[in-house]
Design brief:
Blueprint (H helix, E strand, L loop, with lengths): L1 H22 L12 E5 L3 H15 L4 E5 L1 H9 L6 E3 L3 H9 L9 E5 L2 E6 L14 H5 L4 E4 L5 H12 L3 H4 L3 E4 L2 H9 L5 E5 H6 L3 E6 L9 E6 L8 H8 L2 H9 L3 E2 L4
Parallel strand pairs: 1-2, 1-3, 6-7, 6-8
Antiparallel strand pairs: 3-10, 4-10, 4-11, 5-8, 5-9
Helix pairs in contact: 2-11, 3-4
Length: 265
């Protein structure tokens, strides 16, 4: 009787251990994890810092992928598993909205930005941006670094500004077009282009470049970063992350990085 009891106890213990080994390795569900965020490349430094602060306060952390807004919007259209999209302009957010790929009630403008003309830190060039300013002469034999002027927001803003200032025709054949604004920044930072057009926040992030002047806001559409939860998202932390982005703590990080604060908190 005693032997049988010991065998039964041993079997029960082995069974319990097997069940425990089977259950413990299971990962938490996707809904228990932080959201997947697709964000415009120019937001990287600021949004990474905000994400780190959110983790300190909530224990949650977003997974953020950065690229040009059109590339991200197209990936979402093709079914990429993003919970949140942050665009560098209204056009690409509208692109997804028109296709019912975002939850419209979650959309708002997160921050704003400015457009600047930059040169390598050791450059001797100086200029004042105004109608007809000598941009072509400043380039000499070099090229003007810009994000893709046909689709990437920074490139579109830059082209619009140069057209407004009546200098686009003089330089349109000498544009070094990059896949996103950070790539355009890198061309100037490495000395591969004598001038570039990027956001003020990009210039602020790189000590190897300097700002020659800021484009007047009247020369281009307002630079805004709309954000929204995607229509396919079921991540329960996505609304919490959006709410945190509106807080004084998050907005102060954006402001320190050079973004224009739009929200009243």
């Amino acid at each position: 009787m005693r032997l049988a009891t010991r065998r039964e106890l041993l079997r029960a213990l082995v069974a319990a251990m097997a069940i425990g080994a089977f259950i413990l390795p299971f990962p938490t569900s996707a809904e228990d994890k932080g959201p997947v965020v697709f964000a415009a490349a120019s937001l990287k430094d600021a949004l990474d810092a905000v994400n780190a602060e959110w983790k300190k306060e909530s224990g949650k952390q977003a997974t953020i992928s950065y690229a040009a807004s059109p590339a991200l919007a197209k990936q979402i259209e093709q079914g990429a598993p993003a919970d949140i999209f942050v665009s560098a302009d209204e056009d690409w957010m509208n692109y997804l909205a028109d296709r019912k790929l975002i939850k419209p009630e979650t959309r708002f403008d997160l921050v704003g930005n400015m457009l600047v003309l930059i040169a390598p830190r050791d450059s001797k060039l100086t200029t004042t941006i105004a109608s007809g300013f000598p941009l072509a002469s400043l380039l000499a034999d070099g090229h003007l670094a810009m994000a893709d002027t046909a689709s990437v927001p920074a490139g579109k803003y830059g082209k619009a500004a140069l057209e407004k200032l009546v200098v686009w025709d003089a330089v349109k054949g000498r544009i070094a077009q990059a896949e996103n604004v950070r790539a355009a920044l890198a061309l100037v930072s490495r000395g591969e282009a004598p001038l570039g057009i990027v956001y003020a926040t990009d210039a602020k992030s790189d000590p190897k470049v300097k700002v020659l002047d800021t484009f007047p806001e009247s020369t281009h559409a307002p630079i805004l970063y709309p954000i929204a939860i995607t229509a396919s998202s079921t991540n329960k932390e996505a609304p919490s992350f959006l709410t945190y982005l509106k807080t004084a703590s998050a907005q102060s990080v954006f402001e320190a990085q050079g973004f224009k604060v739009l929200l009243n908190y």
